[in-house]
Sequence to fold (520 residues):
Amino acid sequence: MRKLIILFFVVAHSAAAGTLKAAAVRTESGLISGAGGDVRVYKGVPYASPPVGSLRWQQPARAPHWQGVRAATEFGAGCPQAFSGAKLPRLSEDCLTLNIWTPSRKPGVKLAVMVSIHGGGFVGGWSGIDAYDGTALARQGVVVVSMNYRLGVLGFLAHPALTNESSHRASGNYGLMDQIAALEWIQRNIAAFGGDPKRVTIFGESAGGSSVCYLLVSPPAKGLFQRAISQSAQGIFLPMTSAAQAAKRGAQQLGDDLAALRALRWEDLMKKVQTGGAGMPAGVQFQPIVDGWVLPEDPALMFDAGRAHAVPVIAGTNTDDGAALMLFQPVRTLSAYRDYLKTRFGDAADRAMELYPATSDLEGRKAARQMATDANFLLGARSVLLAMARSGRAYWYQFTRVDPASRKMGALGAMHGAEVGYVFGDVTKSLFAGTPLLPGGVEGFDDTDRALAKAMSGAWVRFAETGDPNGPGLPRWPAVDALAPEYLEFGDRIQTGRAFREEQMQFLAERLKPRPPGRY
Fold:
């Protein structure tokens, strides 16, 4: 069973927008007004009806209409979530909103659209985090959209009663349904903001990167986007929970009275959900599942069978992505590391030790972090890329820059989430600045960081525009070749490499990837 946990959860101060009033735009639900100058920003725009009352644990419905001009100058509420010690935004079940950054352009010009899906382990996160500010990307000539989606027990509860009332005979994955509903809203409305609905790129990090991979194989998402970028997706090629397993667990935890559960205040519902372990947030056991509709099969098997949507893809990981996982599965001694290998790999533990050697407590801790990175992040990214390369263009990156935030938190390499500020084109808005992890903020970014951000965000924008990250002034980025897969390293230097950690990947693929019935 997949153990998707929150890796790092941060909620920073809301991204600042210009104060000039922007012209009203007509959406399908009514007129909205925003703010801004060279980049106009529209915040907190409803893309679906509030999922409350009888709409709790239902497929999202279209947003209601309103009269007059709705002010869209403040981020919408965050979706309900529970974290100890984290600074949260205002929380409400009325949270299905999105935000749009659109630059000045010539009349009649339609710009590529980049849709950001936030991280947070599917139990936390918010589109209003500073690091997700779309201003710098929009200034490069694209329309940027971010969204909220339901989380934890409200976003991913599977239950027999919910399955019985569903026209698709499926429950769970409501958060993924929200993402699909936002993409449908974009198809119907983004032209009014200067966006081209035929050039939509989805991109995200952590749970956002996992969401991108799930949408790549989700039948209801077909045709809603034309390119996809997955950053540090977790657990994509590890076995996934089935609908039957998840529904049984949901009934055991919450009982059978669906009407009573829908009548509960969300705060009281959260109290009924136990944590997944010491230090882990409430609701962590509620994650995307194979529900038979949004995800008809295990995504790994769908990728392997060539049943993903045929769109160009970028995917990659960071060198110390796995450090966050080891916070909840600490390996402090060499003996504990050996036990960890035996638990995970059984009779192949000795081979694992050869590939991830350690002769001291310190080496054991480092080896465990490297294995967590490889097994939970790199294996999935590499497997998705090789599968997608069979039918189209795929581009692999490795982010290795040890930025000031990574150094401050003692990372062995670029930690999980370190690339986000570079992708959005503004490294000063680190994902961790102003959070409990780094309450004092982050300083010390230099010319190397700024140049790297320019190259990385530029490649992302070029890919959104054309489906190819190569272009004038950008580093050469070779497409993935299954025989000898090349990748582009974004680090202290930008350079290409080949067949990254191939021996470890072959071992992990054989031991960890799910197999169809009859192949176990």
